[in-house]
Amino acid sequence: MKIIESKPDMHEYSLRRRGEGNSVGLVPTMGALHQGHLSLVRKARQECDFLVVSVFVNPTQFGPGEDLEKYPRTFEADRRACEELGVDVLFAPSNDEMYPAGPETYVVQEHLTKVLEGASRPTHFRGVLTVVLKLLNIVVPHAAYFGQKDYQQSVVVRRMAADLDVPVEIRVLPTVREEDGLAMSSRNKYLSPEQRDQAACLYESLRLCGDLFARGERNAQKIKTELQARIDKAPLARIDYVEIVKPNTLQPAETVESGDVALVAVFFGTTRLIDNVILS
Ligand code: PAF
Questions:
Q1: Is the pTM of this model over 0.85?
Q2: Which CATH number fits domain 2-173: 3.40.50.620, 1.10.10.60, 1.10.1240.10, 3.40.120.10?
Q3: Catalytic: which of 11, 34, 37, 142?
């Protein structure tokens, strides 16, 4: 496996592979790789001739007071995991490489980024979209892989690629969960043992939501009330939002239909966890 730190080297490598008639896949990450990331890597490995995993803790997507400084950095373990899964290139640029003149120009999306995560983290998605577009421009992959856990991220990235005519397929793969249902996340590491136990309430509440839908409940408010009540049973949980939205537009649902998405964001202390399920 090659480790590439420079943008021109990465770009040239990809163009060469593409020129030889190969498909190139990209799994963009901020490192601290867990089974969720690795499931993306495995799928991309099956689907693409050449596979690039990027590891870059992107400062522009962290707001003031968020966890940029303490975000886990585990480069050696990440390198080994990628090597074992047959990744061709680990692209690991520095901050100066990615933003040599500091960040000045951003990709801003008008509406989809203002709700849910965007309402709580107003500058988050302009940072995500900017770095994702930069990575797509540098790596020029045929396909880029994202996890459904960050549902809104997958929607806004897909919309950006469509709106800006970026010739890439955005692949979104199912959330990988711990045994008790907690979605894998690099931020789970911040939880105390007690918080970790109670964090299972996110998925339990979403499953309850799925059960209510399966039993015929279609009133979004009623489902959200039950969902909220389930989370409120965990004394350490503080709800940021509980929402049921239409896919793609992210507009709140009043009457729930198959394909709508239930999403939660919950604080445990200063750690903020998110999760979602697609109702069907
Ligand atoms: O999902 C993530 O880890 C990040 O938001 C991403 C897509 C790698 C951009 O920094």
A1: yes
A2: 3.40.50.620
A3: 37
